[in-house]
Amino acid sequence: MADWFERVSLTGSRVHLVPLGPEHATGWLAGLTGPVAEHLSIGPPADRAGALDQIATALTQADRVPFAQLSPAGEFLGSTSFYDVDPGNRSLAVGYTWLAGTAQRSGVNREAKLLLLTRAFDELGAVRVVWHTDERNARSRAAIAALGAVEEGRLRKHRRRRDGTWRTTVQFAMTDEDWPVAREGLTRGLATG
Fold first, then answer.
1. Percent of the chain with pLDDT strictly greater than 90
2. Which of 45, 47, 127, 158 could form a disulfide with 169 if both were Cys (CB 3.0 to 4.6 A apart)?
3. For the segment 67-107, what is each residue's pLDDT rounded down to a tens digit?
4. 172 near 150, Cβ under 8 Å?
5. What is the pLDDT of residues 46-56, one digit of tens each?
6. Which three-class secondary structure state does DSSP give residue 36?
7. CB distance 155 to 168 below 8 Å
8. Helix axes 138-147, 108-117, angle to 10 degrees
């Protein structure tokens, strides 16, 4: 069985997912601004040192496998991660996802999710992939549902937001039984758009 924590690269035609590292700090700083960070647990970094700190935090979380999202030309577009990685229960979550404004609505997110889900289900043998999002983030909820994930419920007072208020988290999941139909829909969507 594959190593669930292995830092691999995943390559598509619109996006390349590569292991996140300090070399991505400049792109991180430039991309994680304004509305992009609105619903994230981290705020926009003030400077390159702040971006390096945020990347270091992502790299030191034991149950997380963070990726940089790059254009085929190598331009930094954003970040995403596997987290809550649990090989024993063959499950993981996809999140900590953000895209710079220039990459939004470009098909990058859809292809990145196809790459991540292919890795999870087809290579790692996952039986369950989960997403969590703030109930106030309607755009994220719609995007997750469009992947073929099923809303499972709400976790009240689940996490603190940066402003100190409590977030209700909406949880979605996809199982290995859902994956064939979801893969077909994602593949078809990328071919037509």
1. 83
2. 158
3. 999 999 999 999 999 999 999 999 999 999 999 877 777 78
4. yes
5. 999 999 999 99
6. helix
7. yes
8. 50
